[in-house]
Amino acid sequence: MNRLQGSSSSAKRKRELALVSDTLTDGERVLYNLILSKRDMGIWSGDMKRETNLPDHMVKKSLKLLQSKGMIKEVVNIQNKARKHYMAAQFEPSKEITGGDWYSEGSLDKELINVLKNVCVKYISRQKVVTRDGVLDWSRKSGVITAEVSNQQIEEILRALVLDDEIIEVKSTGYGDFENVPVGRVCYKSKSKGGVRGEPKDGAMSSIPCGVCPRINFCTPDGIVSPRTCVYYQKWLDF
Amino acid sequence: MGSQYGLKFAVHLVTNHFGKIVAKVCETLFRKGPLSLGEIIRCTELTPEQVKNSLLVLVQHNCVQAYVPADQFRDEEESTVTVEYLALFDNVIHRLRFPKFLEIAKRQLDDECEKVLDGLLRDGRLTLKQMVERAVQGKENPGAIEAVVRGSFHKLLKAHYVERCPAPEPVVSTLIKAEPAPRKRGSKMAKKFEAPETIEQRVMEAALPGEAIRFAVIEYTGGNADREANSDDTIMVNVGDNSGGIANEGSILWRANFEEFIRHLRHKLLIENERKRLDDGAATILSAILDATKNVEKKVKIEKSVPLSLDSIFTEVTKNEYGRTMTIDRVRASLVQLGCPQRNLDDSYSIDLKNIVEMARNEEVESIVLKRFGGDAYRIFRLLSKSNCFLETDKIAELAIVDKKEAPRLLYKLWKDNYLHMEKLVVTAAKQSRFMLWKVNKPVLWEYVLDEMYHAALNLSLRLAFEQEKDEDLLHVSRDKLTPTDKSGEVNSVQKRYLRLRDVLFLMGSSLMKLDDALMLFHDF
Ligand code: SF4
């Protein structure tokens, strides 16, 4: 998937395609028109058979031909990766098909997300407090982020970091760290005071075996699973 | 009252402290609601003697309150009055916190107060005379000791950490609207658990001495009563003649006032959480406000702090060393941080305490989710918890940046373990489509988590007993054999086992205390 493809060449391409389409058989034309009509949503080959009533082998053959002529392309549909999904060459798959900005080849681009999260967290922790515009400004100018990433994506990363509890969203009070920020402006602040990123929080329950035990609902004082025979405790108390 | 595991844990505590027979009586009262002596005997199949003694123990330790249901009196033919016994769940669980109460008395007051309180906690209820006797026993210089005990007792009373015992058998109207009378105990479990809650409140209210005498001492030395009354906030009720006073001293029963300790612990949690979330300034201000108003708080679980004007807040704040460095502008800024952007109409500030408690609860549950279900589920849960409304599966995946294929699986897991609420929505437009909507239903989830916490506390406590039992022989080995003596620092196998046991007991003990903080957070705060 090429997210950066420009549109300047599309007019020229259309003309070329018109020429090619003259040489199509009837079956191929019917299929092509159907695929074209689905625009950036594309269509599953199974649905094509149903809608055109063309026999199976014909559909297969025609799709191959259209593809070799560069008129259609196969795309991954996030809703069902196993199905063969086709789209006219001049369209880019819609968000419903790709899953959105964060998806590449039908799955979440976790690597990109983690890299972005890391650089944002590092930047924010160096800054004490920083406004959203401050982060956006930095992301454009600093050159740290090399991938093509929109402002909206940076905002999404910030929101995810808040949900991760890595940074917190606060409103400026105008005092202390907020001295240079207008009162009421939304700011981000690093959460961990020198702590390691991703360190589990030590809640009362989460720091004992029973608190996170998958078998707690089966555990009774005299049952087969019981505190006396519990393997999780054995591990926990193995000094 | 308590949840299913709450009751099990309470019974476990009673068993540990008072033995199986007393626990049986207590459990029966928990499960069936208030009962008369005859009914208890029938239900437990214990001898009348055993039941009577058990009740005496439970009453002595404030775990049971007796009362007389008022509706009996309408029945004119009935000549004898039946007393009913009500088990007090909270007071049983408070037994777990005694070390914390003692620590408070020691820190806030002094070692001597801690000792007097310790006596009260051990014996449940004591008269002042008994407290003195307890302290002077086998000691030299009883006169001096007596003076110290009296002094400590007054300090505890002044701080409201000690109170007069409730009336032994108050008459209580048990007719509570829209609820079966206790006589007609429903057969369903749910009913049994619900009914005592309101009855419990009524009984406790009726038994509680009025504010004026709850923390009042009957003065025993007529002579200097006036002087002391002026120098002390404690209300002195002068009974006139000395003999009456001394007689009272031997008959008025006192006990630890759990409510005040719980209030103290709640305040501490509120202050420390704000210190962590905001800064020392905000914590100082909150602490000053709570300190100034604690005596007018009507109950422990107040939702908003008692309104206070900026001037009085400032005066309170400057009593504290850190507070003295703050300007009035700084105080105002901290109040804004604490969520008081503008003052009330009458120029007073009041802080949303319930919100702080909610945040602390969120954090506890979130940490469970993180550990049990992982980082992606943690983000999803926090998203739903913060938005506090229904969200659709795909929307959740998008906002929390979780793989769209992964999100439904995680949501389902959270739902299956009761951490989420789910609703299906079928839309029939051009095409029929089904949506799954998800939400964190806090009141229900809090109850569920609390029950799990009681379960965990019970398990932890059982395992602790098991560990002790396993190495019981070590308890009979003399001390000096247990610590490594030779200089090489080598440890033999007995010493090794002892060191392990010591670490195990420490870890488990401190974990139980921490878990108890969480129990209070979800139940008492
Ligand atoms: S005792 Fe063991 S098995 Fe039982 S709930 Fe706790 S950790 Fe799980």
UniProtKB/TrEMBL annotation, chain A:
Q: Which Pfam families match?
A: RNA_pol_Rpc34
Alphabetized UniProt keyword annotations: DNA-directed RNA polymerase, Nucleus, Transcription
**Compartments in which it is found:** Nucleus
Alphabetized InterPro entries for the sequence: RNA_pol_Rpc34 (IPR007832), RNA_pol_Rpc34-like (IPR016049), WH-like_DNA-bd_sf (IPR036388), WH_DNA-bd_sf (IPR036390)
What family name appears in the similarity comment?
Answer: Belongs to the eukaryotic RPC34/RPC39 RNA polymerase subunit family.
Physiological role: DNA-dependent RNA polymerase catalyzes the transcription of DNA into RNA using the four ribonucleoside triphosphates as substrates. Specific peripheric component of RNA polymerase III which synthesizes small RNAs, such as 5S rRNA and tRNAs.
- Write the protein's name: DNA-directed RNA polymerase III subunit RPC6
Specify the species: Stylosanthes scabra
Q: What is the lineage of its organism?
A: Eukaryota, Viridiplantae, Streptophyta, Embryophyta, Tracheophyta
TrEMBL record, chain B:
Q: Which domain of life is it from?
A: Eukaryota
Q: Where in the cell is it found?
A: Nucleus
Q: Where is the RNA polymerase III subunit RPC82-related helix-turn-helix domain?
A: 10-66
Query: What InterPro entries does the record point to?
Result: POLR3C_WHD, RNA_pol_III_RPC82-rel_HTH, RNA_pol_III_Rpc82_C, RPC3, WH-like_DNA-bd_sf
Q: Which UniProt keywords apply?
A: DNA-directed RNA polymerase, Nucleus, Transcription
Pfam annotation, one family = HTH_9
- Where does the record place the DNA-directed RNA polymerase III subunit RPC3 winged-helix domain? 365-438
Coiled coil stretches, renumbered: none
RNA polymerase III Rpc82 C -terminal domain span: 152-336
Assembly mode: Component of the RNA polymerase III (Pol III) complex consisting of 17 subunits.
What is the purpose of this protein? Answer: DNA-dependent RNA polymerase catalyzes the transcription of DNA into RNA using the four ribonucleoside triphosphates as substrates. Specific core component of RNA polymerase III which synthesizes small RNAs, such as 5S rRNA and tRNAs.
What family does the database annotate?
Answer: Belongs to the eukaryotic RPC3/POLR3C RNA polymerase subunit family.
What name appears for this protein in its UniProt entry?
Answer: DNA-directed RNA polymerase III subunit RPC3
